[in-house]
């Protein structure tokens, strides 16, 4: 507004100046006009020219006044435009000032956060230094423990050698006694006594091996956290051993459903279990690439069998000697171990991974089921392939040998369960059901101790029981709510046990 008032005052002042000049010029020319009024003819033309000249000068003054006015209007418009631009820039400056203040506050906060993080980093560094120190101390302790363990192993091997020498002496003494009995004519009497004891044992065995088709779930045990992929009974006992994804191996009383003991020391999921004939040692195949052997009486690991380079998925113990163990892993190898010495004595390499294993009844042959669907037989001493047969169109998941060793049961991902004659390797029976679906590559089926029935779990949570001779279903057990991974029958003929992916174990009678 101040600039507009100044412009208006300038215009008014210009008009006043022109008017004053005009009046002065009129006053100055008054004498001329008076002279002109005189009758002087000679000066008339001269004054006329002056009048015209003055009139033209007046017109030029008016034009100059018009141009000044237009210039003032333009300058006023420009001043208004500049004023609006200045206001916008002042607003932008205010916004930038506010943003600058906000950024300064944010910068202060970030500096504070940086200081806190630096302090936290220093604390972590100090903790890391302490942990390194502890690790070094633990490493030193571990090395000393390893040295001590090696010393103890050497002592144990020495004691075993002494025990073996004592056993050899006892055997020699026994041979001498037999020779004396032969010499004294008492051999016949001894044979009669021994034969009577064996016959009584066989009669008792026929009674306890009589299996029944189960129908009732006696106990439902939450055995493991996660899946339970391996279960087996102790030889001629109702004690059940289970292994799961929680790295635990547990022993259960199936009569009461109570936990007897918990075996620790496994560093991976338990994928398979085996037990020696004397029920002294249980061996676990683990996803940690190792096998672990526990002394059941002491509840401690007495051997860790190392040598596989991938997860160990199957294990079995010789039915003749508790000394030999066979295992297979997803590194393409089958290994034979001396459990007494604790190391590998033979390795078989094959292109197709092995999912399931079993020793023959004479302990001289290894039966293996592979991912390519074939059943193979190997010589334990030489490691040579003796024979093979296409058992399934998909991967073999389980191998189970009958009590007499004449029949082998195989299960596959093609949802079939085949019975093979061990002498000819020909299929003697095929078991299947509409709803039966094999749940995994390590789903285990089983034959009853009297070789009359076969049990297998399904992905629908059912346990199917077939008659081995008629190949028809004689029972369907429903209690599980998830896929069943394994089944096993007690050597006494009852009960039957099954385990699923949720770690639940059912005892069937």
From TrEMBL:
SUPFAM superfamilies: WD40 repeat-like. InterPro entries: ATG16 (IPR045160), Autophagy-rel_prot_16_dom (IPR013923), WD40/YVTN_repeat-like_dom_sf (IPR015943), WD40_PAC1 (IPR020472), WD40_repeat_CS (IPR019775), WD40_repeat_dom_sf (IPR036322), WD40_rpt (IPR001680). Residues 44-184 form a coiled coil. GO terms for biological process: autophagosome assembly. WD repeats lie at residues 221-262, 305-347, 356-388, 389-430, 448-476, 477-509. Residues 43-168 form the Autophagy-related protein domain. Keywords: Coiled coil, Repeat, WD repeat. Gene3D superfamilies: YVTN repeat-like/Quinoprotein amine dehydrogenase (2.130.10.10). PANTHER family: AUTOPHAGY PROTEIN 16-LIKE, AUTOPHAGY-RELATED 16, ISOFORM F. This is Nucleotide-binding protein. It comes from Medicago truncatula. The lineage of its organism: Eukaryota, Viridiplantae, Streptophyta, Embryophyta, Tracheophyta. The gene is 25489523.
């Amino acid at each position: 507004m101040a600039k507009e008032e100044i412009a208006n005052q300038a215009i008014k002042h210009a008009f006043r100046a022109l008017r004053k000049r005009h009046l002065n010029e009129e006053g100055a020319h008054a004498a001329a006009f008076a002279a002109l009024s005189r009758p002087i003819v000679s000066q008339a033309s001269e004054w006329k020219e002056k009048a015209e000249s003055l009139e033209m000068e007046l017109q030029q003054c008016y034009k100059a006044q018009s141009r000044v006015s237009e210039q003032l209007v333009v300058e006023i418009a420009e001043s208004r435009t500049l004023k609006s631009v200045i206001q916008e820039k002042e607003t932008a400056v205010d916004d930038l000032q506010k943003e600058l203040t906000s950024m300064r506050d944010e910068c202060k906060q970030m500096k504070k956060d940086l200081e806190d993080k630096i302090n936290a980093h220093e604390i972590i560094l100090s903790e890391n230094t302490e942990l390194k120190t502890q690790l070094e101390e633990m490493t030193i302790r571990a090395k000393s423990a390893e040295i001590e363990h090696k010393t103890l192993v050497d002592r144990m091997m020495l004691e075993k050698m002494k025990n073996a020498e004592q056993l050899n002496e006892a055997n020699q003494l026994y041979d001498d006694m037999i020779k004396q009995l032969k010499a004294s004519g008492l051999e016949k009497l001894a044979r009669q006594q021994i034969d009577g004891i064996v016959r009584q044992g066989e009669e008792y065995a026929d009674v306890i091996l009589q299996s029944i088709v189960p129908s009732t779930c006696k106990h439902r045990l939450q055995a493991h956290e996660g899946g339970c992929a391996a279960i087996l009974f102790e030889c001629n006992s109702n004690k059940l051993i289970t292994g799961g994804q929680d790295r635990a191996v547990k022993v259960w009383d199936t009569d009461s459903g109570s936990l007897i003991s918990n075996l620790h020391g496994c560093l991976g999921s338990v994928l398979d279990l085996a037990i020696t004939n004397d029920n002294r040692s249980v061996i676990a195949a683990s996803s940690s690439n190792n096998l672990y052997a526990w002394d059941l009486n002491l509840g401690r690991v007495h051997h860790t069998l190392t040598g596989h380079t991938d997860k160990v998925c199957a294990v079995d113990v010789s039915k003749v000697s508790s000394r030999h163990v066979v295992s297979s892993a997803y590194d393409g190898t089958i290994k034979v171990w001396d459990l007494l010495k604790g190391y590998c004595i033979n390795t078989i390499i094959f292109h197709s991974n092995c999912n399931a294993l079993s020793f023959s009844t004479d302990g001289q042959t290894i039966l293996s089921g592979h991912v390519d669907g074939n059943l193979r037989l190997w010589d334990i001493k030489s490691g040579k392939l003796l024979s093979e047969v296409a058992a399934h169109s998909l991967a073999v998941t389980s191998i189970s040998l009958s009590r007499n060793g004449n029949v082998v049961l195989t299960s596959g991902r093609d949802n079939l369960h085949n019975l093979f004659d061990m002498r000819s390797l020909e299929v003697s029976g095929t078991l299947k059901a509409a709803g039966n679906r094999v749940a995994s590559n390590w789903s285990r089926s089983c034959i009853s101790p009297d070789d009359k029935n076969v049990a297998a779990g399904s992905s629908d949570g059912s346990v199917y029981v077939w008659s081995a001779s008629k190949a028809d279903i004689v029972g369907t057990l429903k209690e599980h709510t998830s896929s069943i991974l394994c089944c096993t029958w007690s050597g006494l003929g009852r009960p039957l046990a099954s385990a699923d992916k949720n770690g639940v174990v059912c005892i069937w009678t």
